[in-house]
Amino acid sequence: MMKRILITGAAGQLGTILRETLKPHAEELRLSDITEIPDLGPNESFVACDIADGEAVKALVEGCDGIVHLGGISVEKSFDLIEAANLRGVYNLYEAARLHGMPRIIFASSNHTIGYYKQDERLRHTDPFKPDSLYGVSKIFGEAVASLYHDKFGQESALVRIGSCTPAPENWRMLSTWLSPRDFTSLIMAAFTVPRLGCTVVWGQSANAMGWWDNSHAAFLGWVPQDNSQDYAEEIRRSVPRPGRDEAVATYQGGVFTDEPIHQS
Amino acid sequence: MMKRILITGAAGQLGTILRETLKPHAEELRLSDITEIPDLGPNESFVACDIADGEAVKALVEGCDGIVHLGGISVEKSFDLIEAANLRGVYNLYEAARLHGMPRIIFASSNHTIGYYKQDERLRHTDPFKPDSLYGVSKIFGEAVASLYHDKFGQESALVRIGSCTPAPENWRMLSTWLSPRDFTSLIMAAFTVPRLGCTVVWGQSANAMGWWDNSHAAFLGWVPQDNSQDYAEEIRRSVPRPGRDEAVATYQGGVFTDEPIHQS
Amino acid sequence: MMKRILITGAAGQLGTILRETLKPHAEELRLSDITEIPDLGPNESFVACDIADGEAVKALVEGCDGIVHLGGISVEKSFDLIEAANLRGVYNLYEAARLHGMPRIIFASSNHTIGYYKQDERLRHTDPFKPDSLYGVSKIFGEAVASLYHDKFGQESALVRIGSCTPAPENWRMLSTWLSPRDFTSLIMAAFTVPRLGCTVVWGQSANAMGWWDNSHAAFLGWVPQDNSQDYAEEIRRSVPRPGRDEAVATYQGGVFTDEPIHQS
Amino acid sequence: MMKRILITGAAGQLGTILRETLKPHAEELRLSDITEIPDLGPNESFVACDIADGEAVKALVEGCDGIVHLGGISVEKSFDLIEAANLRGVYNLYEAARLHGMPRIIFASSNHTIGYYKQDERLRHTDPFKPDSLYGVSKIFGEAVASLYHDKFGQESALVRIGSCTPAPENWRMLSTWLSPRDFTSLIMAAFTVPRLGCTVVWGQSANAMGWWDNSHAAFLGWVPQDNSQDYAEEIRRSVPRPGRDEAVATYQGGVFTDEPIHQS
Amino acid sequence: MMKRILITGAAGQLGTILRETLKPHAEELRLSDITEIPDLGPNESFVACDIADGEAVKALVEGCDGIVHLGGISVEKSFDLIEAANLRGVYNLYEAARLHGMPRIIFASSNHTIGYYKQDERLRHTDPFKPDSLYGVSKIFGEAVASLYHDKFGQESALVRIGSCTPAPENWRMLSTWLSPRDFTSLIMAAFTVPRLGCTVVWGQSANAMGWWDNSHAAFLGWVPQDNSQDYAEEIRRSVPRPGRDEAVATYQGGVFTDEPIHQS
Amino acid sequence: MMKRILITGAAGQLGTILRETLKPHAEELRLSDITEIPDLGPNESFVACDIADGEAVKALVEGCDGIVHLGGISVEKSFDLIEAANLRGVYNLYEAARLHGMPRIIFASSNHTIGYYKQDERLRHTDPFKPDSLYGVSKIFGEAVASLYHDKFGQESALVRIGSCTPAPENWRMLSTWLSPRDFTSLIMAAFTVPRLGCTVVWGQSANAMGWWDNSHAAFLGWVPQDNSQDYAEEIRRSVPRPGRDEAVATYQGGVFTDEPIHQS
After folding, report:
1. pLDDT tens digit sequence for C84-117
2. What is this structure's pTM?
3. Which residues in B lie closer than 8 A to residue A178 (C-beta atoms)?
4. Which among D132, D134, D144 has CB closest to A137?
5. Contact D219 E122 (CB under 8 A)
6. Residues 6 or more apart from C84 whose CB is under 8 A from it?
7. C94 is known as an active-site residue
8. Best label site of A116, D121, F57, F151, fewest CB within 10 Å?
């Protein structure tokens, strides 16, 4: 049982899900976002915060014994937007944590750090990056900051390269990339619970039979995902048109992000 | 649902099994063999064809949207026989496919491409070949042709290195090599269904606890074998004499093929 | 069914367990220890033996068709004690086996051969040693003797790097290292049963979700562990205090052995 | 012979060296820096430019057929400074290149991307990053941008992880990390000359016998470094005090950067 | 000093070179080709032979204590031609050798077995094949036959994947692929001389600084190539137009073979 | 310049050589052996010592700032002899060093730790052991002790797996295994000189073109061997009969040690 878990980006889709699922695991959830969250539950508090504001982030982090960092941009955007939220924002977070007891950080990294690998390639967490977007580049930056703060100060992090976290897989590609909210929740709690977390990359995927990513190195966390996209495979193959073999969504692990242009601000 | 699947070598043991199991998955099964098949079912047609005859193979392939290539020699034979059926035959098939829309090809390759590895070695699909017979050499040739046609023309193939495809495992070695007909069928359909097949080697084995071969690279196909030789292990250990540790069948992955001489024509 | 299995170190904790579980698998269990075993069962015999005594070991081994070698020191001790029991003792055993028909040997090796690896490292059996104690060094010696006798004389061995063999996992670390007595027994019998054993390293762990060690290379043995420490995880997390992240027991695979000094005799 | 090579950061130490050595290889050197360069040679031109200014960088890049990007911060500094010059600056450069014909870019990356590896570890270019500073993190960012622009647009880059580029090695660590100006120059020209550069990581080191980094993957560039720190080893061992084995400069590949605190702006 | 070396394909370009360079190393050179060789030297004999004729090949091989197998097709041709000369021909040669004392065979394999790898990939001899032509496929077949005859009968071979064997490198690609006649000769003699040859793949390249292929595994042969394409690099860069980066000759290791269509007979 | 180097086993063949070559590098050479050394030079002292005697070894080590440990058995012998000198002896040495300031230890390990690898296999220092003799087993034990004392106490060692250290290579196998006295000496001094030695395995071979062992990981030591067996190759091939391909000396890296029986005491 944690005392106070901070969730950044708590007003977003993922944050909304995790407020529910993390509730039983902490005395208090401190929610933060740039957008107000109106409907606070009994063990929830809200702190408005722009993570590009370093002082504000320091205040935000103080007193927490665990951080789930969802804050920032989560799709392809212009460099200006990504710089503020995903570069400066991540730096601010790690600096704040360093100054306030180094609570463990669950960092929402992304499959878009490696999005240009082909779908018939099986990846290990040690394979070189191949980002498919400025967004993906910013997540590589975040992982690098986490690595630096671990080697230099001992800050512990789980770097969760999330595939697709939705209630259920929605298309052919998600049969490989799906991370169920239940499994994401148990991953977060495993990372908070294991005696020694270190700075560990974890592929954010459920126990999908069709997965592209090898999580065997992270078994020591004690995380055992329970869901499998296979349970949805027949339904999706029946109801969702099969993509052509040369479409980005069937070719690259990052899917349509590889088709995104550079966004101008 | 496929329109027309061509099965070459359809009169053989494997072909006879697959006619049954593939029936629900195609509007028509086009069966081909050098031997006549008398008992055609309602959605089956038969085309007599010697696969060493290039023109005949072109006619055979036209109009199919998927090919299961079982045709050719499947045990050790003289070079003359293997040359016609397994060298020239495979070339003919890929040329025919190239000319007729490049339907996906499921190529029945074999564990005899790597038969001289010891049974205590675990293999990845990228390990170098170690053929145990001219037959095994011919399957390496076939895989090489498939690779060429993929890189040069985009032809997609599944190169299934079949262990032992029989209704049930029959001896100690098959506890490692068994591929149930049910699993072979689901593998074929997975290869026909996946949006992008590429040119993918798959070890043709069920989910055997004792398996020697690592199929993790092929998870993206969405193939989940259901059978496990372990269910037959006790029975086989009781009823089949244990081979001596220095017999070929207990030493090499290719088993008794390593004991075969060169057959003279 | 074996004729006569020799268990050395049979009076110890592991030996006492295996007397029970191996009973159904052999016509006779020949038990040996430096300490007398009083309560022999109907198919048990006892031979008092100091394994540092080469002639006595030769007499002990004669007539056995399988050996489970638990004898020797199993914790950190002074060099003098380890030398006699774990260096000279292992040499004596392999010499005795060589002279008496080379019955297969199940050698109780240990995770302390690699105890200085961190707990967030996943190991393959081919990774270099990193012993955490003179005890661990002595087990490396034993594995080296087994390798020599295999390559030179054909002696077959299973080198079982035991994690923690207790009725149930007892602390946080054992969630990774636990080997249930049931699984150890089935491993022993698999090694006696497989047509060709060779000289095979096996990580002595149950099917623990949190395991650190990759046993995929040993699938050919047909050993399928049935137990999983995960079934005990909730209970342990509730009832056993979580170790600090910098304690040896949470840092190194060998746990507290890394904290042991050199024992003086 | 190149038409116009752009050197960013041309007023710095490295830039000053390369102005000399690159002179014979281009009709014109376009020099750029935030600091004025007074003493222009006959085939040199100067453009004052803050690389954090996107529009200015576009103008700067236009008309060049090769870029040597030395601009930005080259030691540990506060995040504010690094963000402007090394994050935004690199983005600006690649955007400008994309809009102006994609001239090849020689990107001055750094050993500080991997500075936390120990000096007794030999690295391949595919090993995961281990940055030792915010500066090192910013170079990882730059490599990620280069990778993105290559996979998405075909932009070619050489990512040169420079060790220590000085006229001669100056201390014990530089016996491993030294890159002579002559070798850096020939590397730049090899990258401009090879028919296909792709996006290639190169360790920026001379042919030092004591090197930590494996450049064998980059042999295709045709770069053959001529200098070897070994020629200076005796002199350095005699004249420079040997560092203690636990000092950062003797422990980590990044040397004293690992001792740097986070700089506050 | 060998007694009698057989050179097949002796009338070809390579054969003509090797007649000169091998002359000092054998009492007799037995030359064979489908084309007559008129100008025999004093220690040369000629045997006309179509290697597709099994009986003729047996007669040819008898009495030789070493074979340099250059015979067959050496560029892309129709399947019919390749089948006769490079499939059946190789089989005939190994059968003949098996029946006549198993003299060592130097088999002229080719870089076209791996021609579809990109030029920025460094290969080991164990990397999977990627043929670029039917010719390349036929060389894979040849290597597979050699492997079979080694594992089954003990026949020793050097499988020399020749790059480009010409008096001097002639274009940009050959800076990587060149094998000087002098180095090819010393390789042949090293393979005949080493006490144990086994069945060893060797990349047929001189000591080119720009080489793509790692020959370190074959150091045991004692072959030390003396030539380096680097000596010709400046001249070629000056006199031969640089290929465009997207031309096959600059993209793939197999160069223009990847552009070849399937030849019809 | 070292103050006092201890050479154990100084009366042996290797010790006699190193007394000469190490003389210029230390103010004093402390020589030790079980056999008296009569002809002491001006900067040499002699201490008679049986390394199986722990107290004597402690006295021996005191006051030394570097140890070259050649003492013990260096060929195959009975277990009794090896146990005293190579098991207990090594333990005594490391205990003594631990108590006396942990001077660096150059441990004469051996190729016989991996003697059962074939000669056509290229080894990395991380490959699993394959000892060919009890002697080889004892050297594995020594390396394990060194590893333990490094991880537990920080003791630094160079583990030199010596091939064949003789003035010149004497037979075909030594073309691969030769270590010239000059190169051994420079290796010892490099290990004493490098700021951080750690616990590093080094293959004890000169810069032999025919070497089997990859020393690239140890480049950081700054050791650059100067000799190459190639200079002796022609002479040896002319004057020493070529071994048959199935003789141990041509098959296994450990050569004739694989033919040694177990010696009885």
Report:
1. 999 999 999 999 999 999 999 999 999 999 999 9
2. 0.97
3. none
4. D144
5. yes
6. C52
7. no
8. D121
From the list A135, A149, A232, A252, the catalytic residue is A135
User: Looking at CA atoms only, how far is residue C220 from chain B in angstroms?
Assistant: 5
Phi, psi of F151 (to 5 degrees): -70, -35
Which of C94, C116, C135, C149 is catalytic? The answer is: C135
Cα–Cα distance for residue pair A72/A81, rounded to 1 Å? 9
- DSSP letter string, chain B: -EEEEEEETTTSHHHHHHHHHHGGGEEEEEEEESS------TTEEEEE--TT-HHHHHHHHTT-SEEEE--S--S---HHHHIIIIIIHHHHHHHHHHHTT--EEEEEEEGGGSTTSBTT--B-TTSPP---SHHHHHHHHHHHHHHHHHHHH---EEEEEE-B-SSS--STTHHHHB--HHHHHHHHHHHHHSS---EEEEEE--S-TT--B--GGGGGG-------THHHHHHHHHHSPPPPTTSHHHHBTTGGGGG--PPP-
Pick from B91, B116, B148: CB nearest E151? B116
- Which of F156, F195, F217 is facing D250, going by the closest CB pair? F195
pLDDT greater than 90 at residue D1: no
In angstroms, the CA C216 to CA C202 distance is 9
D and F: number of Cβ contacts within 8 A: 44
Instruction: Share the mean pLDDT of chain D.
Output: 97
Catalytic residues of F: 135
Task: Give how far the C-alpha of residue F109 lies from the chain's centroid of Cα atoms, to the nearest Å.
Answer: 4
Q: Looking at the partner chain, which of D195, D197, D200 has a beta carbon nearest the beta carbon of E172? A: D195
Our CA-based measurement puts residue A225 at a distance from the nearest CA of chain C, in whole angstroms, of: 10
Q: Minimal Cα–Cα distance from C181 to chain A, Å?
A: 22
% residues pLDDT > 90 (chain F): 99
What gap in Å lies between CA A55 and CA A63, rounded to an integer?
15
CA distance C166 to E112: 58
Strand partners, C107: C69, C159
Tell me: pLDDT of C1 over 90: no
Average pLDDT over residues F44-48: 98
pLDDT at C25 over 90: yes
Q: Which residues pair with D159 in a beta bridge?
A: D107, D201
User: Please, which chains are in contact with B (at least 3 CB pairs closer than 8 A)?
Assistant: A, C, E
Band (B265; pLDDT cuts 50, 70, 90): confident
**How many whole angstroms separate alpha carbon B236 and alpha carbon B255?**
17
The answer to whether residue A265 scores a pLDDT higher than 90 is: no
Chain B residues with CB under 8 Å of E126 CB are 127-128
Q: Which 3 state secondary structure label does DSSP give D82?
A: helix
The stretch C223-238 carries a mean pLDDT of 98
Q: Is the dihedral of CA F93, F97, F100, F105 positive or negative?
A: positive
Q: Does position F1 have pLDDT exceeding 90, yes or no?
A: no
From A98, A128, A137, residue closest to D141, measured CB to CB: A137
Instruction: Extract the tokens encoding C36.
Output: 């007398």
Instruction: Give the model's pLDDT for residue B63.
Output: 98
Contact B250 C220 (CB under 8 A): no
Residues B90-119: pLDDT tens digits?
999 999 999 999 999 999 999 999 999 999
Model confidence over A63-108: pLDDT tens digits?
999 999 999 999 999 999 999 999 999 999 999 999 999 999 999 9
- Interchain proximity B237–C193, CB inside 8 Å: yes
Share of chain A above pLDDT 70, in %: 100
Q: What percent of chain B has pLDDT over 70?
A: 100
Question: Which residue of D lies nearest to E246 if distances are taken between CA atoms?
Answer: D196
Chain E: closest CA distance from residue D20 (Å): 22
Interface partners of chain E (CB pairs < 8 Å, 3 or more) are B, D, F
